[in-house]
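Help needed: design a sequence for this.
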């Protein structure tokens, strides 16, 4: 226990707890609105964000063909400069990402968030539910399409098998006819 408290204190001093998911079991929790929070920012219904770049950053093409809302993130400067290295930490590699400025987060967003926390949490819950439902619809469509592809492949395989079987039967009949002609010629 003593070691865990020492580790927690050290990590807090380094500001690593909020950004490293591996430390999720540590007793300290840093939430949105806290000065040391790094992560997703809910900009719906809040003050418009000041962005580091006006265009979104996308590291990988999305694996899911669902039009997902862009992410607004507060990250450390070294993370935004080398986003390819850090995007997995935020589960954001296949997403459009906008980085918000620290000054805006501290001076505008955090005070607004603290005064409207319930509204933000309700919207976040709705957003997560919407994304879950979109993913389920995509998964159902994907499974249905995969099943249809397998059925078509099985149908083509059956057709090729039938064609080979029919072709084989035709050759057998041709051979029988030829054999019959030879047999008839020998007996006449």
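Sure. Designed sequence:
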């Amino acid at each position: 226990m003593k070691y865990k408290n020492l580790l927690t204190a050290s990590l807090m001093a380094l500001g690593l707890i909020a950004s490293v998911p591996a430390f999720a079991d540590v007793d300290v929790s840093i939430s949105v609105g806290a000065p040391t929070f790094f992560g997703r920012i809910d900009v719906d219904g809040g003050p418009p964000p000041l962005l580091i770049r006006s265009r979104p950053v996308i590291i990988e093409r999305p694996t899911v063909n669902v039009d997902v809302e862009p992410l607004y993130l507060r990250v450390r400067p070294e993370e935004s400069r080398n986003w390819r290295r850090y995007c997995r930490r935020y589960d954001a590699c296949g997403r459009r990402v906008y980085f918000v400025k620290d000054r805006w987060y501290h001076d505008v967003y955090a005070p607004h968030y603290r005064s409207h926390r319930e509204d933000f949490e309700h919207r976040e819950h709705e957003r997560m539910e919407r994304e879950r439902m979109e993913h389920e619809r995509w998964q159902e469509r994907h499974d249905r399409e995969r099943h249809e592809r397998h059925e078509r492949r099985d149908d083509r395989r059956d057709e090729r098998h039938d064609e080979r079987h029919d072709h084989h039967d035709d050759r057998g009949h041709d051979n029988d006819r030829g054999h019959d002609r030879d047999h008839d010629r020998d007996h006449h």
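Confidence is low (pLDDT under 50) at residues 1-28.
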